[in-house]
Specification:
- The protein is α/β, with parallel strands linked by helices.
- It has two domains: 8-108 and 202-301, Periplasmic binding protein-like II (D-Maltodextrin-Binding Protein, domain 2, 3-Layer(aba) Sandwich); 109-201, D-Maltodextrin-Binding Protein, domain 2.
- It is 35% helix and 19% strand.
- The protein contains eleven helices and eight strands.
- The protein has helices at 15-26, 29-32, 63-69, 80-93, 138-147, 164-173, 185-191, 214-233, 240-245, 270-282, 292-295; strands spanning 8-12, 37-41, 75-79, 99-114, 130-133, 157-160, 178-182, 195-208.
- The radius of gyration is 19 Å and the shape is globular.
């Protein structure tokens, strides 16, 4: 059991990414590990109340990133490619350092969604057509991953249409050909008659400040692992987090909890780094020249 003297400031954002953290908090698993946790909530693109509109070239000005850089968060998670980008570029820019300390617990589902009356029936039909994403976040990276098997790079067109609810409205107005969504907004889209063209899971990565020691991280990940066991048995008691994010556009019965997938945090391997980092560089979404040694620290899994 780890007993941290200073409270760990742990980020909570979108439920689809953070559900194991929320369950571990609600069920007392962090306390069982002797941990003192301060949960810091930041706006996310899945929340109906979010008004922040991100830009393609300013990841460190976004709510979670700016709070981390100012010292308001010690540990957080987001899409694997997004963590790679931020860790690499923060290290190169002299911003507050962060290391990849684990492959995360949530395999968040993303979907490319089109209008029901559109003529888009397969990914190839989106050649040169605008797909709305959150720039340099999960919906952006996963959209590229999903569609690169069908279209050449020069024919993939992504654009920014705001938050998840904002991009659904853009789709309904015909401003974009397709949108990339995560839960609960995939379920909202289906309820409102939109059509899912394709979907895929994507894993989170966990990032932490160098000040957060290995035993404390290990205890945090054990708590998340227990939460994953609970969610594997029955996630329905926690569907209310998704319903709340949808702001009245979804009832619990309409949420597709079968899309939820979780597993205990795991070490971030060199092979995983090589594959993910080289792919991200190949799409010009981060800078070349970094290394596993600079960015990854599996100290939570290296206890004696």
């Amino acid at each position: 059991m780890a007993t941290n003297k200073t409270p760990v400031k742990l980020a909570v954002m979108n439920a689809v990414h953070d559900l194991p953290v929320l369950v571990a908090r609600d069920e007392g698993f962090f306390k069982d590990e002797g941990l003192d946790i301060e949960f810091v909530t930041t706006p996310g693109m899945a929340q109906v109340t979010t008004s922040h509109k991100v830009q393609f070239d300013s990841v460190f000005e976004r709510p979670l990133d700016s709070v981390y850089n100012e010292g308001g968060i010690d540990q957080y998670r987001m899409c694997e490619w997004g963590i790679v980008k931020r860790a690499v570029e923060a290290e190169a820019s002299g911003l507050r350092p962060r290391k990849i300390v684990s492959l995360g617990a949530s395999m968040s589902m993303f979907a490319i969604v089109v209008s029901p009356d559109s003529n888009f029936y397969e990914p190839e039909m989106l050649k040169g057509k605008p797909i709305a994403v959150t720039p340099n976040n999960g919906s952006h990276f996963v959209t590229l991953k999903m569609i690169e098997g069908f279209l050449k790079k020069e024919h993939v067109k992504v654009t920014n249409a705001g938050t998840m609810p904002q991009r659904i409205e853009a789709l309904k107005k015909g401003d974009v050909a397709a949108v990339s969504l995560m839960e609960p907004w995939i379920s909202v889209a289906e309820k409102e008659g939109l059509r899912v063209l394709m979907e895929a899971h994507s894993t989170r990565a966990e990032a932490a400040t160098d000040d957060l020691d290995g035993p404390t991280l290990a205890a945090m990940f054990r708590a998340q692992a227990r939460a994953c066991e609970v969610l594997a048995k029955d996630p329905t008691p926690y569907v209310h987090y998704f319903v709340n994010e949808a702001g009245g556009r979804l009832e619990a019965k309409d949420f597709r909890h079968q899309r939820l997938l979780h597993a205990p945090p795991q070490p971030y391997t060199r092979e995983r780094w090589d594959d993910t980092y080289n792919w991200t560089v190949g799409w010009d979404m981060t800078m070349p020249g970094s290394s596993y040694e600079k960015i990854v620290d599996n100290r939570a899994f290296e206890q004696g």
